[in-house]
Specification:
The chain is α/β, with parallel strands linked by helices and 375 residues long. The chain contains eleven helices and 16 strands. It has a ten-stranded mixed beta sheet. A two-stranded parallel sheet has the order 1-2. It has a two-stranded antiparallel sheet with strand order 6-7. The N and C termini lie far apart (50 Å). Pfam families: Radical_SAM. GO terms for molecular function: 4 iron, 4 sulfur cluster binding; metal ion binding; RNA methyltransferase activity. It comes from Noccaea caerulescens (Alpine penny-cress).
């Protein structure tokens, strides 16, 4: 019989309740496993005797394993290739940032290096975005909530994870129940992450956006918009046909009214496709009534067969200037991290980079938390 992950919260709590065991015993079990990932169940102290036999028969401490680890040459990024119990692989990425590059009251914020973990929610993805490596895999399977949480467990052995972004492989809102359950585990003991430090990204799954704030209040929303008009969106994001732009904007307006939170807008810059001044004005008009932060993302090559080219720095700068000066919309340009290990935005696909490099000189940058805290 296939054993379940002990981090599948609904499974372990249901099994404990059925056996007459207080489901809150899951918390000390999780804490012990995080500290001792290679443990056997009998090592965990002070559990009811019935819990040990149940754990042995139905659960594993970790159903996944860290297969390979790759470090970028500048030391800011580490990519984890994680093998699942069924033999499939997913990738997660640790990105290291410097707190002092954020501003507070006009002064650099105190602190030092912190880490953000980019998490996968599916093996592959059915959205088929033409600029994204994961989309080229097609959809393979959803991850369980435990497999999602286990990415954080593996990463926590390598870095002190402060922020989580669901921007890895897959469309998180197409695996809605598992993602919501995993986030709830991360928000509570023993992880106790703040909801404002968790961001869920989506291409715009409207029906799921409509219920996200009620299920995960305080969690941030990022939308992979990538084009200001429906025609271009459909051209580069085939799934956009199912989510018309106006319906998406209506859902975002409702989300913002309920949550009173700014929304992150992800916009990949594709040369000659969506990076013209006209597109900048169209985007500004589309979003001028919203409270948003727009993140312009340089296109990351996904192989020699890619149909797209990266926008010039001048085009990106002009695009940003229009949004900032004409529409007064806060607009950032993402500093790419992990390109040399295929760990940058849009590059996650199950493969193994040629080099397994160790960290060198570190050039640390701002992260999403700085954007959030300055809103």
């Amino acid at each position: 019989m296939k054993l379940k992950s002990v981090f599948d919260a609904s499974e372990i709590k249901s099994e404990f309740e059925s056996a007459g065991i207080n489901p809150n015993f899951a918390i000390p079990i999780w804490k012990y496993v995080i500290q001792n990932p290679d443990c056997v169940w009998d090592e965990i102290p002070s559990l009811p005797s019935a819990a040990y036999s149940l754990l042995h028969s139905k659960f594993k401490a970790l159903t996944s394993s860290l297969h390979s680890l790759f470090h970028s040459s500048d030391g800011t990024t580490s990519k984890l290739l994680i093998k699942l119990q069924n033999g499939a692989f997913v990738e997660a990425v640790i990105m290291r940032y410097d707190t002092r590059l954020g501003m507070c009251g006009g002064k650099p914020r105190p602190g030092g290096v912190r880490s953000t973990l980019c998490i996968s929610s599916q093996v592959g993805c059915k959205m088929g975005c033409t600029f994204c490596a994961t989309g080229s895999m097609g959809f393979k399977s959803n991850l369980t909530s435990g497999e999602i949480v286990e990415q954080l467990v593996h990463a926590s052995r390598l870095a002190d994870i402060r922020n989580i972004v669901f921007m890895g492989m897959g469309e998180p809102l197409n695996n809605y129940n598992a993602v919501v359950e995993a986030v709830r585990v991360m928000l509570n003991q023993p992880f106790q992450l703040s909801p404002k430090r968790i961001t869920i990204s989506t291409v715009g799954v409207v029906h799921a956006i409509n219920k996200l704030h009620n299920d995960l209040p305080g969690v941030s929303l990022a939308v992979s918009l990538h084009a200001p008009v429906q025609e271009i969106r459909c051209q580069i994001m085939p799934a956009a046909r199912a989510f018309p732009l106006q319906k998406l904007m209506d859902a975002l307006q409702t989300f913002q009214k309920k949550s009173n939170q700014k929304i992150f807008i992800e916009y990949i810059m594709l040369d000659g496709v969506n990076d013209q001044e006209e597109n900048a004005h169209q985007l500004g008009e589309l979003l001028k009534t919203f409270q948003v932060v727009i993140n312009l993302i340089p296109f990351n090559p996904i192989g020699s067969t890619s149909q797209f080219n990266t926008s010039t720095k001048q085009s990106v700068s002009s695009f940003q200037k229009i949004l900032r000066e004409t529409y007064k919309i806060r607009t950032t340009i993402r500093k790419e991290m992990g390109q040399d290990i295929s760990g940058a935005c849009g590059q996650l696909v199950v493969n193994q980079p040629a080099n397994n490099k160790t960290p060198g000189a570190v050039e640390l940058v701002r992260d999403i938390e700085d954007l959030y805290l300055k809103l």
